[in-house]
Amino acid sequence: MLERVQKIIANAGYCSRRKAEEFISEGRVSVNGRLIKLGDKADADKDDIRVGKTRIERQRLIYIMLNKPRGYISTVEDMYERKKVVDLVPPHVFPIGRLDRDVGGLLLLTNDGSFANKVMHPRYETKKTYLAVIDTPLTKDVMMEIRQGIKLDDGFVQGEIRKREPKIAELIIHEGRNKIVKRIFNYFGYRVTHLQRVAIGDLHLDVKEGKWRYLKEYELKKVLATQEHTDRASKSNILK
Question: Residue 223 falls within a domain, yes or no?
Fold first, then answer.
């Protein structure tokens, strides 16, 4: 079956689809010995697909939930030899998105680039739930403003928020922008002293810090069903 080559590379777990597109644009991807361009297709079962000298082959897809400890970075490689999340899990997977070094909690890892793209892509508006400890008590006025939305330097953002304790807030946002949770609270003069992600969509963190587990089949189907619902809704709006 013919598929776009970047999708084949991502599905093989070599890297994310976005990264595969970069490799193609850089002239590093060949099919049957011929360099290709973005948009070209191939058959993963028949064609010789390579990134540089590395041949791309199908592999068993893996989906992992990790409780990331603070102090670890969410990258596959690091020139400074810092502690990485991939050191805590089986080999040949990569993080879906990232958590800052000083932030702990739920991080998904996979070798399925297509799945990773769906979780990260803004169009799917995947919910991310955080528990934030702040330096002074949260007020009702601030909660109302966050629900209505605020304008940061890089655009508008809003979220669902509720107070767990005077200085502990649960914040649900659809954003993946850099340090977005801290910036939301900083906007109102708060300093976040502790931050943990506790859920992505309907997946809730249920493993101890530094531990991981494979996603169950029903959990994976639930995530994919959410994305498919968004795709159907988009197509319906286009047809109207």
Answer: no
pLDDT of residue 130: 98
Among the listed residues 100, 153, 154, 202, the single catalytic one is 100
**Residue 24 and residue 37 in contact, taking contact as beta carbons nearer than 8 Å:** yes
pLDDT of residue 232: 54
Spatial distance between the Cα atoms of 202 and 223, rounded to a whole number of angstroms? 7
Question: What is the average pLDDT score of the chain?
Answer: 91
| 33 pLDDT more than 80 | yes
Among this protein's residues, is 100 annotated catalytic? Answer: yes
For the entire predicted model, the pTM comes to 0.76
Give residue 45's domain range.
2-55
From residue 8, how far is each of 41, 60, 111, 240 by CA, in Å? 9, 13, 12, 33
Domain count, the chain: 3
